[in-house]
């Protein structure tokens, strides 16, 4: 897919560019490069940086490679999941990075392409795999919907989609099997939800589709390890930046960053550390950043974004933080 066909408006791009301004010269790993919007902005703004972009979507890899081709010698794009970032960097001959960026969730391009099966708004197959090539071995949404027991479906919808009516929806899905299209699934979910609830807010199938997408791609399962890899890879002064759009993603990012910032300290708050924990990063900002009202108006899909960042400590600073 060409870069023009894979147009995706990067979220909070100015904030991301500003956060990477102070890092030392070197490579930023864009672990979810998508169409290359954030990577392009970083390369334009910061001549001291290069980018290695990863994505599990082959269409995104092709689009990003085309978009970043005007930065010869400063940009490389590889087909990989973000939990393979250390392997990719090692294969390219790099043992450290000056930055890492995670723009989590699904892109607007993936949502808008009916054949990918991500959206309840476009009739298509129940797929939802970010790596549609099948090389990642993920099950499709159709396999989960048609094969999982009712109790497991209810758990997926409740835990990954925070769906209030998870049990009712799971029961209705099992009764309607087999389901083969997004339109069929959306209708079953809609009809399973009480009429008053259907008339409030978003489409009634939104949470269920989100939950299935996360389950298909194991997004929450692989995120903690990928964040830990990224932090370990950073040089002192390097930064890891994460954009999350789902409360489960943001909780994981917040927890991983706080764990790194405290070294896992178990001492009572407000007292000097006596357990020997050594922090590896500092929080760039205590609270998550949110998109501006102007950005949300221009790009409504940015509304749920939460931006967090940490900076790698030098060993001496980490040791001082432990005392």
Q: Order of strands in the sheet with the most strands?
A: 3-2-1-4-5-7-6
Number of domains: 2
CATH superfamily of the largest domain: Vaccinia Virus protein VP39
Question: How far is it from the N-terminal to the C-terminal residue, by CA?
Answer: 53 Å
CATH structural fold name of the largest domain? Rossmann fold
Structural class, judged by helices and strands? alpha/beta
Outline type: globular
What does this structure look like?
The chain is of the alpha/beta class. It folds into 2 domains: 13-108 and 221-322, Rossmann fold (3-Layer(aba) Sandwich), CATH 3.40.50.150; 139-217, Putative methyltransferase TM0872, insert domain (DNA polymerase, domain 1), CATH 1.10.150.170. The chain contains 15 helices and 7 strands. Strands 3-2-1-4-5-7-6 form a 7-stranded mixed β-sheet, with helices on both faces. α3 (58-67) links the parallel β2 (49-55) and β3 (75-79). α8 crosses α9 (182-192) and α12 (219-233) packs parallel to α13 (247-262). The mean pLDDT is 92.
